[in-house]
Amino acid sequence: MYASEEEDRCIVMCRFAKSFSKDGTEVLTLKIEYPKVDFPDFRRAESIVNRCIRAQIDRFYHYASTVLYRQAVFAYQNQQADGAPFHPYDAVMKYEVTCAKNCFFSVYRDCYEFTGGAHGNTVRRSDTWNLATGKNVPLGCFFRPGANYRRTLLEEVLRQAKENMEKCPDLYFEDYQELIRRYFSLCHYYLTPDGPVIYYQLYEIAPYAAGFVTFSIPKDLLDCPPKCPG
């Protein structure tokens, strides 16, 4: 169980696992780890968050049990015909709670697939809610109306990346500045108690070994830091 700083709320981490077989052979394993929230002071938001997470899980399960399962069966049958060993496919969805403070709740979810090869692939997505309103919180909410916050954030990411490269020249790809601009997305962020964190997907600006590259945005860069009404 994840305990937030507020005593009146809790997040229980739930786990689900299932194995899919063909002709008695396991061809796909599915694992999901997700939060179930309990917000006594924000019942409407609690319902919205739990429904949203449930819908995301259902979509991932449907994809794994249909599309990915068919691919796994096809690969298994081909490798059986060739006399080659078959390694079961994997599908893993895991949520991480990054903020459960005041009236904000933020999570990211990593969806991993292994379909053979040296390693699998993971895609990250994230959501942030204002519990007082039950609405999603876009990055623009932390800036005054009309502000060119995309440019402000991009400049900060480029500044941090340059500093990181000076300390570790092989950290990112050689053309990292162009790649940072190309793949920058205002949707790719989550909230922490210290402020927003912007992330890049695997391979976008750095080698696979670097993992998900993140940039923490300082609160003093925000026109309207995260704040609850009242």
SSE layout and pairing:
Elements: E1 2-3, E2 10-22, E3 25-38, H1 43-82, E4 89-101, E5 104-114, E6 121-130, E7 135-136, H2 149-167, H3 176-183, E8 189-192, E9 195-200, E10 213-216
Parallel strand pairs: 3-4
Antiparallel strand pairs: 1-2, 2-3, 4-5, 5-6, 6-7, 8-9, 9-10
Helix pairs in contact: 2-3
What's the number of structural domains?
2
Instruction: Output the radius of gyration.
Output: 20 Å
| Separate helix tally | 3
What order do the strands of the largest sheet run in, or round the barrel if closed? 1-2-3-4-5-6-7
Task: Give a concise summary.
With 230 residues, this protein is an alpha+beta fold. It has 3 helices and 10 strands, in the order E-E-E-H-E-E-E-E-H-H-E-E-E. Helix 1 links the parallel strand 3 and strand 4.
Architecture overview:
By secondary structure, the chain is an alpha+beta fold. The protein folds into two domains: 2-136, Fervidobacterium nodosum Rt17-B1 like (Heat Shock Protein 90), CATH 3.30.565; 139-221, Heat-shock cognate protein, ATPase (Actin, Chain A, domain 4). The chain is 29% helix and 34% strand. It has three helices and ten strands, in the order βββαββββααβββ. The protein has helices spanning 43-82, 149-167, 176-183; strands at 2-3, 10-22, 25-38, 89-101, 104-114, 121-130, 135-136, 189-192, 195-200, 213-216. It has a seven-stranded mixed β-sheet, covered by helices on one side. Strands 8-9-10 form a three-stranded antiparallel β-sheet, with helices on one face. A hairpin with a 6-residue loop joins β5 (104-114) and β6 (121-130). α2 runs antiparallel to α3. The longest helix has 40 residues, at 43-82. The two termini are 29 Å apart. Mean pLDDT is 94; it is low at 1-7.
